Amino acid sequence: MIGKIREAAKRMLDDGTVRLFLGYGKNGLGDTVPVFLKHKEDVEALYWDETCRYNLTRYLTDRDVICLEEGPVGVIVKGCDQKSLKVLISEKQVERDEIRIVGVVCSGMKDDNEEILSKCGTCDSWNPDETFCDIVIGQTVERKIEEDEYSDVEEVEALDPAQREKLWGKYFDRCLRCYACRNVCPLCYCKECILEQNDPEWVPPSASKENNFYFHIIRAYHLTGRCTDCGECERACPVGIPLRTINRKMIKAVKDGFDFVAGKDPEARSPLTRFRRDDREDFIT
Fold first, then answer.
1. Which of 86, 106, 137 is the last residue of a domain?
2. Residue 145: pLDDT band with limits 50, 70, 90
3. Of 118, 108, 7, 100, which Cα lies nearest the Cα of 56?
4. Which domain holds residue 27?
5. Measured between alpha carbons, how far is 278 from 258 in angstroms, rounded to an integer?
6. Which of 19, 26, 109, 214 ranks highest by number of CB atoms within 10 Å?
7. Residue 285: predicted pLDDT
8. Residues 165-176: pLDDT tens digits?
9. Secondary structure of the chain in the HEC alphabet?
10. pTM of the full structure
11. Are residues 120 and 158 in the same domain?
């Protein structure tokens, strides 16, 4: 697998198909980190295993790191990552002809304790979309999603409002407001985040249970109809807040209400950004 990834990157850099290649490598401590390659001689730095957890599409909208206008960029995507990329394309943040997509078949990523990430248990995209990627590396993996795909959400939904408030209050009381969840999210690409504005100040910056409620609920609403459940927010959270459960609640609501799942079609727009005459209205009271 690593050999084929290096071969693809070397070919793209050598023939000028891309001017920059985003992949995974190892730092001096042996940790898996994103790498940015400009020369074919550097492809030996590329690496691949079950620790390649980062969603590299996050960098495609960071104009302080990458300027897509300067020429095409190659990027490695897992099946879950490609869904984020499709949303970015649908929202006109990335043009398809600005990137060369190397899809890599994934059998599940692991955390530092060698445990499969929770997101991988509900992922239906271990195999990259061959019609979307320029290259797909790896053999197809058979994958069947369990019937209780939203069991975590339904468990919280079964609680009464007071119990839910107590549950999330316990989690949000831990929040440091470090913004790791937002900063790692490929769909939080605004240059100026409303959650940090101070003129006017929408959400106080201090870390308190009340302010943290505002922060996380507003962020969840901003991702409604857009989140692809890549799981990066929960993975990056230093205090273990189950952020996927919040986002998956919104994913479930949009799926049930509008029969829409973000990241399936790069041409599809979120139901919250468009109007259709046949949209359901039975939830309006």
1. 137
2. low
3. 100
4. 2-137
5. 10
6. 109
7. 61
8. 999 999 999 999
9. CHHHHHHHHHHHHHCCCCCEEEEEEECCCCCEEEEEECCHHHHHHCCCCCCCCCCHHHHHHCCCCCCHHHCCEEEEECHHHHHHHHHHHHCCCCCHHHEEEEEECCCCCECCCCCECHHHHCCCCCCCCCCCCCEEECCCCCCCCCCCCCHHHHHHHCCCHHHHHHHHHHHHCCCCCCCHHHHHCCCCCCCCCHHHCECCECCCCCCCHHHHHHHHHHHHHHCCCCCCCCCHHHHHCCCCCCHHHHHHHHHHHHHHHHCCCCCCCCCCCCHHHCCCCCCCCCCCC
10. 0.90
11. no
Q: Are residues 165 and 68 in the same domain?
A: no
Residues 131 and 161 in one domain: no
Domain termination site, one of 137, 168, 190? 137
Residue type, 149: E
Number of structural domains in the chain: 2
**Structure tokens given for 40:** 């074919």
Q: Are residues 105 and 160 in the same domain?
A: no
**Domain for residue 278, yes or no?**
no
